[in-house]
Amino acid sequence: MNAVLLAVKWLCLVWAVTWPVTMVTGIRNPGRRRHKDVYVGEHSKNKHRGRIDHKLTRQDSTKSLLIKTEQLLRIEEHDFAMRPGFGGAAIPVGIDVQVESIDSISEVNMDFTMTLYLRHYWKDERLAFPSRSNVSRTFDGRLVKKMWVPDVFFVHSKRSFIHDTTMENIMIRVYPDGSILYSVRITVTALCSMDFSSFPLDTQNCSLELESYAYNENDLMLYWKNGNDSLRTDEMVLSQFFIKKFHPSSGLAFYSSTGWYNRLYINFILRRHIFFFMLQTYFPTMLMVLLSWVSFWIDRRAVPARVSLGITTVLTMSTIITGVSSSMPQVSYVKAVDIYLWTSFLFVFLSVIEYAAVNYCSTLEEMRRLKRGKLPTSYNASKAMAFDGCFHDSDIALTPFSRLPTSMTSNHHRTPLQNPEDPPTEGTRLRRQRSVQENVDLLLSNSYLIDSYSRMAFPLSYLLFNTIYWSMYSS
């Protein structure tokens, strides 16, 4: 009993001592309570923010989704350095191509540049995953590095690259049963063996070839997934060509060291536009040939005019031929444009040679007359030659031909079966054909006839050449 009373007294004493201190502290130090309230408030806010962050973490599961995806696809459980079904039958890989554009075609380098979407279809059961909704999962290029993809490359390619703006243009889609769609956007520059024998009236057949680099036909079988519909093209407009046909094909390629490989072809036929070359090459060439014929209507004694006209057309033709040759590859065969240009150059050159022949014949004719004494004694040949290179017909006084006797004239009208002593028969004449030597002498003695014949012979010959040329190469 005494112990209980002692304990009660002790508690009363302690309460009596601490109560005034508590009252004084609460009155004289209000900031302490304020700090306590702030601490409680911040603690409650941090606690509330923690709940929000936890809720956002549950909604934004990017990091955990990647881990779940790798676990779902069981990427870490398999060795994806080996193809699906390793050691078994060849895995079929379907190919689907959509051509976006043909960027350039170079005749000098004999290549073309094409941008396309290349899609692969195959099945890898190692990537199958359970799904109630049968919904596929789509990923970008970061997952491609962790799984197996076909090693398709472009045969005879010079340069190629995968577009990487703003990210690598790679897409992979995995279906629950393990079917995979792998799509990539590529620009490739490949070789095209062109035949320029009909240039610029030519048609070129180029192809882009796809093949597996490591897996032969025993391990991988490439095929067009949808047959002829596997190749799609957007509407394309080229500057020098128009596309006649796009079609896919397939075949086998043999290598002596590694065996047979499946190969797919993207074939396209290009027809060259001729209008550009008509403006740049054919029309100027035709005009130069026509211009060279103007000299046939210029007086043969106007030496400076005819010589300068002939030299100008020859030099212009040489410039056109050089310009065309510089933009073409150095091939060892004759092109259609070479035939046209060099034949036209030959016509221009012959027009110059024609005037040289006219001038020579004129000089030779007048020299013969001078030797026969048919020129007046007061005629100064050196002055006439110094002026324009030939004698002047106006300065030459020719003696008229004497008339033949009547008896000789009447004998020429007799027939071979008629006796010369018999009287001539009316209406019978004998025309003796001139020999080649007589025709040459006639031209030498009448040089102006060369120009007269050239005015008809050159245009008709050039017209015949154009008819044959365009009928051969336009078909």
Q: Specify the structural class.
A: alpha+beta
Round the mean pLDDT to the nearest integer and report it: 78
The ordered H/E elements are HHHEEEHEEEEEEEEEHHHHHHH
Q: How would a crystallographer describe the biggest sheet?
A: 8 strands, mixed
First-residue to last-residue Cα separation: 136 Å
Q: How many strands appear in the DSSP assignment?
A: 12
Per-chain topology:
Blueprint: H1 2-28, H2 30-59, H3 62-73, E1 91-106, E2 111-123, E3 137-139, H4 141-144, E4 152-155, E5 157-162, E6 170-174, E7 179-191, E8 203-212, E9 220-224, E10 231-233, E11 241-255, E12 259-272, H5 275-292, H6 303-326, H7 336-371, H8 381-388, H9 406-412, H10 436-445, H11 448-473
Parallel strand pairs: 1-9, 1-10
Antiparallel strand pairs: 1-2, 2-7, 3-6, 4-8, 5-7, 6-7, 8-12, 11-12
Helix pairs in contact: 5-6, 5-7, 6-7, 7-11
Provide a descriptive summary of the structure in words.
- Strands 1, 2, 3, 5, 6, 7, 9 and 10 form an eight-stranded mixed beta sheet that branches. Strands 4-8-12-11 form a four-stranded antiparallel beta sheet, with no helix packed on it.
- It contains eleven helices and twelve strands.
- Helix 5 (about 275-290) packs parallel to helix 7 and helix 7 (about 335-370) runs antiparallel to helix 11 (about 450-475).
- With about 475 residues, the chain is α+β, with helices and mostly antiparallel strands.
- About 15% of the residues are buried.
